[in-house]
Amino acid sequence: MSEQENASELLVPNEEYLKAGIHIGTKFKTKYMENFIYKTRNDGLSVLNITSIDERIRLAANMLAEYKPEDIIVVSRRENGWKAVRMFGKLTGSRVFAGRYPPGIMTNPQLKNFTEAKVMLVTDAWPDRNAVQDAIKIGIPVIALCDTNNQANNIDLVVPCNNKGKKSLGLFFFILTKLYTEKRGGEFNASLEDFTEE
Q1: Which of 26, 160, 172, 177 could lock onto 36 through a cystine, CB 3.0 to 4.6 A?
Q2: Each residue of 132-152: pLDDT tens digit?
């Protein structure tokens, strides 16, 4: 298959991925993420494979589409993801925690804000580790956005991407929201700008 044919099957044009920097990793890489790394640049930054990113976004959307919005919980401790996750929550009806994840809300039924979920999505498995630990305790699957420096243990579905940049996170949640909404039979009419901050 030629480069051209392959590019036409991506969820968004290759240029969109490149413009958002969704493929730009860090100078550190873990053994968990090696399979997703396309190359290491001269400046030491690892670059993620766009085809892998695209495939994993598709897998994440398919997995989430099996759940009703109220069964999904999305967590982003990292501030660059707040606008994007809030927009995902607003458009899909899923619950989101942008900011500090309240400990025990899924494991302690005595808490006022106790919540039940059947699947969790985190923007970064490291800052969001308390949420991941709760998901493991109650036995629900975890989808995590992982950069080249992430560990991927206890993650059910790794989505390789730049999980630190506003544009990258905005693009990821824009695509995910669109796919999720369409797979659930809904109408999607938001723009990428709704998910990204200037």
Answers
A1: 160
A2: 999 999 999 999 999 999 998
**Residues 140 and 120: beta-carbon distance below 8 Å:** yes
SS (H, E, C) 50-76: HHHHHHHHHHHHHHHHCCCHHHEEEEE
Domain 13-182 in this protein, CATH class:
alpha beta
Q: Which helix (H) or strand (E) holds 19?
A: helix 14-20
CB-CB contact of 12 with 50 (8 Å): no
> Which burial class, exposed, middle or buried, applies to 120 when counting CB atoms under 10 A from its CB (0-12, 13-18, 19+)?
buried
Alpha-carbon distance of 115 to 104, in angstroms, equals 9
pTM above 0.90, yes or no: yes
**Domain boundaries in the chain?**
13-182
